[in-house]
Each structure stands twice: as C-alpha cells, then as structure tokens.
Amino acid sequence: MATKVRHDSISQMEPMxxxxxxxxxxxxxxxxxxxxxxxxxxxxxxxxxxxxxxxRSMNSxxxxxxxxxxxxxxxxxxxxxxxxxxxxAMRALQMESAAHIEVQQRxxxxxxxxxxxxxxxQAFLCRVHRxxxxxxxxxxxxxxxxxxxxxxxxxxxxxxxxxxxxxxxxPAFKDLPDFLTRFQAAYNPSRLSAVNKVIAAxxxxxxxxxxxxxxxxxxxxxxxxxxAYLIKAQIGGHGLWAVSRGFARNREAYxxxxxxxxxxxxxxxxxxxxxxxxxxxxxxxFFLQTALDQIDFMSSLLDLDGLQKRLSGYVERQVSQGELTxxxxxxxxxxxxxxxxxxxxxxxITGRPERTARRILKGLLDKKxxxxxxxxxxxxxNFPVGVVGYYFPRLYPEGVEITAR
Length: 405
Hints:
Layout: H1 23-40, H2 45-66, H3 73-80, H4 88-113, H5 122-133, E1 142-144, E2 150-152, E3 164-165, E4 168-169, H6 176-187, H7 194-211, H8 218-232, H9 243-249, H10 251-262, H11 277-302, H12 304-320, H13 328-338, H14 346-350, H15 354-366, E5 370-371, E6 380-381, H16 385-391
Antiparallel strand pairs: 1-2, 3-4, 5-6
C-alpha cells in the first residue's frame, strides 16, 4: 500500500538493524566471513590482483545492467583503453561503465590511504556521487521529475526535489541532512561487532536506497557504498566476488526484497519501529544469501586445479587453430601459480630452445594472455574479454561471455 505521508522525521526510518537479530542472520553473516576468507587464500597475491581487476569490470557490467543499461564486456574493455564508439548512445554507455570502474578504484584507494574514512558520512556519499557523475556525459545529467519537469543532476549535491520511487515516498529533501546523520550514527562500522558489521552492510544498503539522497544515481551510489562497506567490515576475499552479479541475475527478487523492506510495520509482532522489522530481516537475508552464492560461485571458478585445466583447454583450442603451441600452457600455468615469471625462465618452463621459447612468450603477450609493466620485465596473467568465457565460464550471461564481437 502506498505511503500517504512523506517522511519528515528520522524515527520513520527505524529500525536501522533488524531487532532481536535471530540466529539465522548471525549464521549467514558468519558464513560470509568464513567462506570469503577461504576464497582469499586461493591465489597468489599477484594473480589475485588481476582477478580483482576482472571482477571490478564485471561489477560495473552487472551494476549497470540492474539499471537497464546493457553494455557488452568488449565495449567496457575498449572504454578502459579510451577506445570509444562513434555511436553517441554506445559511447555514453561505455563512459558510464568506465566511470563505475574508476570510482570503485578510487574508493579502494581512499580506504587504503585513509583507513579511518567514515564511509557512512554525508560527505563520503556526496563524494562518491560527485566522482561518478563528473565522469558521465551530459546526456546522463537531465532527468524527468514525477511532475514532468526536466531537472539537471548536479554531481555531489543532495536532491532539492521531492521524489517517489514506485510506491515509496522518499524523505522530504529539506530533511535529508537529518536522515543522513542518523544513517551515519547507526551504521558506522567502528561502532559495531564483527558479525553486526556484516548484517549492517545489508541493512545500510536498503536504508540508503530508501533515503534516496540524490536526484538520480542512487542505485549506483548505493552499490558502490556497499562495496566500500564490505571493505570496512574487513571481509577477507571481498573483491574476488561482487554481490551485484547476484542482484542482477535475480533482479526481480532484488527489487521485491527492497520493496519488502520499504513496508510499514505490520502489527505488534513486527518490531517497534515505523518500518517493518520482518521486511528488513527479509532484505538482509536476501543480501547475505546472495553474497554467499557469489562467494561459492567464484570459489568454484578459482579452484586451482579447475582453473589450470581451463587454461590448458584454451591453449589446446588455440593450437588446433594454429595460433599457439602446447608449451604455451606451461607458461600460463607457472604464471598462474607463481604470480609472475621472469622472461628468462621461458626456456626452462617450455623445454624449448631459447629462440622458440621467446616466440612462444611473444605469442602470449601479443594475444594479451600475459602482460608486463616494462618491455623486459616479468610477465603476469591477463584476462582479456575474449578468453574470460573459457577461463571463467558463466561469469557473464550466456551469449556475451565467450568471444569478442
């Protein structure tokens, strides 16, 4: 049922965390921490860094897909290389995807440089919004209000208009600072236990979307904020998986869970706040179950035995097409396990004469299966879009993951 009165008191956002957190949410939170930590030990740190870069790009794809913007991974890869389409619509989508990746990188850098950053503060949220919109084309800034007027999104500025999202009437714009102050106090990770940080990562995702602080871009800012929150919650392995993939693959369930947490309290057994405790618990359950699903999915892909077999299988396919030799698989395997390999070891690893080994190495570099910081520096794994479907099946939806267009 539609809310009839616009929210103008911070008490109308309660509860901030599910009251009387039951064992099911606690158990889910503990499992997220446990399984994600196990995932973090699967790879050499240098190989892990490359996978994190891949997952960052994938996160952009799925976060934008939730918004109804479908940008092919090949076009995202090209955008990161500043190779933009001549088609204005496609170019705008490429810029949107690149913006998401760049802002996520900046968030990670901010938190590494300043581990005491208060990510729940209004200043941080506005900073994320400003960084994101500053990278978008002008076409993304004008939006239509419910009344039909055209408004321009100002990067980093709280909205100056009233908004309704579906059946949810967001807080009055004049009261946004008060709601964000309450948000900051309730979800500051430094004030929460290890388990409650994980549950708060889920609860804050909904409550930030519920506040709807900006004229547009709230979904993207909320998902970027949740990425920051999971980092602050010190969940080992986060970065090797992304909850947005699960949200996008179950978009209707994600939207239903959000709407369920929008609901008002349903009687005396539904908590003591204005909003439904049952609805917030349901959303937190959905969030954490989705996180576990994505952790398990990436764990299956990053199993070293399976990953080595898929790398070798890809090389065999290339051998059948006359593109590579079988010894290329030996190099890829060593780099996978060791993180990086000096070029001078190519002869020993492949078992071929020096000139032949150099040619094998060059073939892998030319295909961007390996890369290096300098012309003579050690080589590391690389995951161009054209091989992602072979190395990491089902990372992207069927039909977009296997080969470049």
